[in-house]
Amino acid sequence: MVEITRAQSNVSGYCYPHPRPAVTVDIILFTFQADELTTLLIQRRNEPFKNKWALPGGFVEMDEDLHEAALRELAEETNVKDVYLEQLYTFGDPHRDPRTRVVTVTYFALLSADELATKEVRGGDDADDARWWNVYALPDLAFDHARILDYALQRLRWKLEWTALGFLLLPGEFTLSELQ
C-alpha cells in the first residue's frame, strides 16, 4: 500500500487549491471565589490587541488534536493543568480576527474551589498576566471574546439546571445553599 503525505496530496490533486482558514482554540474557565462566578483571562503580550484582556487560547498545530491544543494553550498561558474540559461551540465570523481568516473552537472548563486552591495561576508564553475576573465585571475583551463568554455563560446556566455538571464547581463538602 502506498502512503501519501500531505505535501504529496496537494501536488497530486487530492486537495483543492483554495485559501484555508487558520484554526484556534479558546478556553473559558469558570470557578467560584467568595460566592462569585469568575473566569480566567490573560493579558495579551502581542498584537493584535496588545495589553488587552482575552480568553486563554491560540493556534492549533498541524499535527495536534483540538482537545490537546486546548489543554496545551491553557497550561502555557495560565499554568492551569488537569481541569475538566468540554467542547463548547465553533465561532467563525470571517472578521473575528484582523490578522487573517480564523475559526476558533471553544472549550469551557470548570474548576472547583478545592482545585482552585492547588493551582498557581500566572501568565506565560504570549500572555503577560493571567487573572480571575468576576463574570459580571469584565474588562473590554479582545477579538469576539465577549460574545464567546456570553455564549459560555448561557451554556453553563443550562448545564447547571439540567445536568450534574455543577458538582464540579463545588468543594468536596458543601451546604445545601451552596448547591443552590
Q: Keywords for this structure?
A:
Nucleoside Triphosphate Pyrophosphohydrolase; single chain; seven-stranded mixed sheet; 180 residues; globular; alpha+beta
- Determine the CATH topology: Nucleoside Triphosphate Pyrophosphohydrolase
* Dominant shape: globular
Approximate strand percentage: 25-35%
SS field, number of helical segments? 5
Number of strands: 7
What is the share of helical residues? 25-40%
Q: Calculate the mean pLDDT score and round it.
A: 87
Query: What's the order of the H and E elements?
Result: HEEEEHEEHEHH
How large is the radius of gyration?
Answer: 18 Å
Instruction: Provide the CATH architecture.
Output: Alpha-Beta Complex
Distance between the termini: 59 Å
- Class from secondary-structure proportions: alpha+beta
